[in-house]
Amino acid sequence: MKDAFGLPHSLLVLGGTSEIALATARRLIARGARTVWLAGRPSPALEQAAEHLRTLGADTRTVAFDALDPESHEGALGKVFTEGPIDLVLLAFGILGDQAHDERDPVRAVRVAQTNYTGAVGAGLVVARALQTQGHGSLVVLSSVAGERARRADFIYGSSKAGLDAFAQGLGDALHGTGVHVMVVRPGHVRTTALAGRERIPLATTPEAVATAIELGLRRRSEAVWVPGALRLVMTALRHIPRTLFRRLPL
Prior knowledge:
Elements: E1 10-14, H1 19-30, E2 35-40, H2 44-55, E3 59-64, H3 73-82, E4 88-91, H4 99-104, H5 106-134, E5 137-142, H6 155-175, E6 180-187, H7 207-220, E7 224-227, H8 231-239, H9 243-246
Parallel strand pairs: 1-2, 1-4, 2-3, 4-5, 5-6, 6-7
């Protein structure tokens, strides 16, 4: 069960090698979490992540999970819940894709959409039902500010996150009053290892900053969290800019 501050003792991470998810797991372990499941495709990276969390004092196990195989989600994730209650599920998997290449290759574009949206829908419904059955828990969904308004530079990725964001909000409404809390997290550009070397972007953030915001959101039982917080005002303004002007902005 959660502690007096609403922080979890057990968590399941969907996307077990995500830098944001691992930063969050480290932070929650420091706050008292003792059981961690890392779900992802079997790989040395997944095992290394699990071993690292074990050195921090958490009983950490891995489970094979493939976002692109929705028929396997019930069995793979259901297995975790049979081992004991889960206080927090962090849905953190997703791919950026490559807009320039994906526009010319519809198969690649569809893979982005299937991973970020349809895979998340399948997994999200499975874990939501399991949380509801046990009568408590939180589902934290990593969305993105890219889903707030489609940009020429990344509309394939952005559209997949827009779908995910809408799904998570609707799921939160459906679970209201059941004891299950759903929180959507909308980071801006996150400086991860995968994006090292790219030009600096205003209001960029880090995995550790997102983890801090997730912890605060859990304590407050927030329904939506922006990282950094100033992005909420920025995106509110951008949503209302006329489309003819929006096209000219260097976004």
